[in-house]
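Per reviewer request, we include the raw input and output of the structure prediction for the construct analysed in the revised manuscript.
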Amino acid sequence: MAKKYKDYDITIYYDEADIFQLQRLRKLVKCKKYIKGEVIKCNKVFFSFNLDMIDDVEADEYYFVSHANYEELGYKPPIDNSKLTHYIGVSQFASDKLDEYGKKLGKEIKTIKCYNPLTLEPKQKVVRLVSACRLDDKVKGRERTLRLIEALDRYCAENNRNYIWTIFTNPTRIKVNSPNVVY
């Protein structure tokens, strides 16, 4: 969603988050750690499963987005909150199940089906290198190998690329500090 709607003023609030996911998201939208009691004002707010912060939000519209059949997972979808104004299901199945749950609560909610706006990025091929050598042996190219690893790591960092170099070697005291090298 962040890729598709990045031109809108979007802030993602989180309690806990994967650091790598935050790095990806921060390139597109604002991300902010939620502080309990902080008043958040916005036009529209979207919740997935957790409504813990709903009382701290002042919005024109409150959306609940359903991604699953929560009952089958052993949860009750938190749709009985009176602040919720709209309901979205990311599939026909999720929409139908949310509507059924609403009926059990005596609530007619009319979930809107809206598939996730998935954008796939083309994957770059990973360069794969294989060597059979003696890394401990100065004569057999240890220094050249280590310099090449440093150069490849620099290139990949600068160009957002990856490689995997599998090195078959005798037991070695050399420690290669590269996430791209396996020996």
